[in-house]
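Annotated sample (chain length 174).
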Amino acid sequence: RYQRSSLLNFEIHSPKGKLMDPIGKSPIPAPILILGKAAMAFCLLFFAVKTQMADALLYDSVLTRALGVLLAASGLLVVIFGFVFLGHSVSVGLPGEATELKTQGIFKITRNPLYLGGFLACVGSCLYSVHIVNILLCALTVGIHHRIILKEEEFLETRFGQRWLDYRRRVPRY
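Output written by the structure step:
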C-alpha cells in the first residue's frame, strides 16, 4: 500500500495516506537555501574545532563550554520533538501535496521547532567554540533560515487561511 522513498529511505505520507514527496518547492532561490543548510552544518561541526584547533579560539572557559553543550543538547531535543509531532508530514521545502497544519505538542509552544532547535544548537556551538568563522556561520544560518520561515508563513497563510492566522496569533514564531 505504501511505497518507500529511495531518496531518504523512509516513508512520508500525506493525510490521505499517499506517499508524500520529501522534497518540495524551495521557498527561496535554491543556491541560497543550500548555502543556509551548509552554513548550519559547518556551524555545528565547529564542536570539533575545540579538539583540533583550540588555540584558534577567541575565548574559552568552562562556563561557555557548559552553556554551549546545554544549548546544543536543548536544540537537539527541540528538533527531535518537532520531528515526532510532524509525524509523516516531513518535507524539505513547500509541499505540493495536501498537508495538515500541525498545532499540537511542541507546535503549541513554537511554530518552528526544527528551526528554533537548529538555531539553539548553532548558538551552543558558538559558545562552545568561540571563533569568528563560527559566529559568522551562525549569523548566516539564522538570516537565511529566517527568510525561509517568512516565505513558508506566506505559503501557510495561502494554504490554511484563517486557521493559520488564528494559530499565528496564539503561538510565537520562535
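Annotation: Confidence is low (pLDDT under 50) at residues 1-15.
Annotation: Residues 45 and 79 are 17 Å apart (CA to CA).
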